[in-house]
Specification:
This is FlgD Ig-like domain-containing protein. It comes from Sorangium cellulosum (Polyangium cellulosum). Keywords: Signal. The protein is mostly beta strands and about 240 residues long. The protein has two domains: about 120 residues, Immunoglobulin-like, CATH 2.60.40.10; about 100 residues, Immunoglobulin-like (Sandwich), CATH 2.60.40. Helix content is about 10%, strand content about 35%. The protein is built from three helices and 13 strands, in the order αααβββββββββββββ. A five-stranded mixed sheet has the order 7-13-12-9-10, with no helix packed on it. A three-stranded antiparallel sheet has the order 1-2-4, with no helix packed on it. Strand 1 and strand 2 form a beta hairpin. The relative contact order is 0.14.
């Protein structure tokens, strides 16, 4: 695909890169030139066999970085499009915070040859906003299938539903302050995060030892996402 077709695509994307993408060579194409015929939607699927592109992706808990990779001359015009991307898209690398699961598109024009190519990659939303938790205060770890585990779940009290956090740490102590259980975890970028039931305790010392005695135990757990961190404290009555 050459400059004339690239013009239509960049205009459709609203990138404002028309002048820098085409330059003086734009005079070679007229509105009647068959190389510019058709609409932008038809041109998106076309690409040169010589020029190819891909997108390198690096994601952390709270940001995503995309880097364009191409095999041409090295003198390129870039046009990124998609939700939440920066305003300046004529750059080989963008860093942003997706607010939803989506796909990011990339067009690359090789200034030296006039060729254009296309790449696309999925990105996942990062976690922001209020947490959704319900914390029980009793457990009966007697293997009868009811309340055998103490579990933090979402406000609808459903296991497996995200609580809008990407990491947690948990400590449970006895009435003398001695630690009986600790755990922590961070969800991988691109996942729903911590789920209801991930923060839990089976009533055993260190999670694998003997069952604790009947009595009151005390928990502290902290959950975090990209714009906040909250700590919760309370007690758990263990009964048999």
């Amino acid at each position: 695909m050459r400059y004339g077709q690239a013009t239509l695509i960049l205009m459709a994307l609203g990138t404002g890169l028309l002048g820098c993408a085409i330059g003086a060579d734009a005079e070679e194409y007229s509105d009647n030139d068959e190389t510019t015929g058709g609409d932008a939607a038809e041109l998106v699927g076309e690409s040169s066999q010589a020029l190819t592109a891909s997108i390198s992706k690096t994601a952390t808990q709270c940001s995503t970085t995309l880097t364009a990779v191409a095999n041409g001359s090295g003198d390129y015009v870039y046009a990124w499009s998609g939700t939440d991307i920066p305003r300046d898209t004529n750059t080989p690398t963008i860093t942003f915070t997706p607010t939803q699961d989506t796909r990011i598109n990339l067009f690359i024009i090789d200034r030296a040859t006039g060729e254009i190519t296309f790449a696309q990659t999925p990105v996942w939303r990062h976690l922001y906003g209020a947490f959704s938790v319900f914390v029980p205060n009793v457990m009966t770890p007697n293997d009868d299938g009811y309340n055998d585990r103490w579990m933090v779940v979402d406000s609808s009290r459903q296991i497996g539903v995200p609580i809008n956090a990407h990491s947690y740490s948990l400590t449970i102590v006895n009435r003398w302050g001695g630690s009986v259980y600790q755990s922590s975890a961070s969800a991988a970028p691109g996942t729903p995060g911590v789920l209801g039931g991930d923060i839990s305790w089976n009533g055993r010392v260190n999670g694998t030892g003997s069952l604790v005695s009947t009595g009151v135990y005390y928990y502290t757990f902290t959950i975090s996402n990209c714009d906040r961190s909250s700590s919760y404290n309370g007690n758990i009555s263990v009964v048999y």
